[in-house]
Amino acid sequence: MQVIKYVFQPHGDERGQLVALEEFKDIPFKIKRVYYMYDTAEGVIRGYHAHKSLEQILVCIHGSCKIRLDNGVEKKIVPLEKPYEGLYVANNMWREMYDFSVDAVLMVLASEIYDETDYIRNYDEFLKFTKNFSDTVAAQGIIL
Ligand code: TYD
């Protein structure tokens, strides 16, 4: 199972840090939507779905959380705790986000606008869907 993490370029100087993300340069797709989660209650697990076509990059821009990825055969847990790291999540990955610190802000860059019909929320349906895929390899990034 290939899990791809991006390490973005921080532009740091004596004033502090700045990370800039541009589509097709730092992010391997056109960014059509950005959303973020914060004030996540203790013990909450979000996600529990895959997508038919949506690609995402997850960046925990403050605090920390964990992402459990599942390709239908293997599972991998990726901690996100650096504002300059992004986790690539292909459409055909079942994802769960959990263990949010109280100050966590999880930002998601998405390749498509919100479309409920793109969601696969049933795990058995996901297993049927994902059987037709091999691992997706993004253009850049570190394979974990
Ligand atoms: P939900 O799908 O439950 O989030 P997750 O599965 O990632 O934990 O989304 C929560 C609510 O927000 C739900 O009412 C749909 C809405 N929503 C939007 O309106 N636009 C979006 O881009 C997203 C991701 C969610």
UniProtKB/TrEMBL annotation:
Organism of this sequence: Acetobacterium wieringae
Gene3D superfamilies to which the protein is assigned, alphabetical: Jelly Rolls (2.60.120.10)
Top-rank lineage group of the source organism: Bacteria
Lineage start: Bacteria, Bacillati, Bacillota, Clostridia, Eubacteriales
InterPro entries xref list: QdtA_cupin_dom, RmlC-like_jellyroll, RmlC_Cupin_sf
Name under which the protein is recorded: WxcM-like domain-containing protein
Annotated ranges, domain Sugar 3,4-ketoisomerase QdtA cupin: 8-130
SUPFAM superfamilies, A to Z: RmlC-like cupins
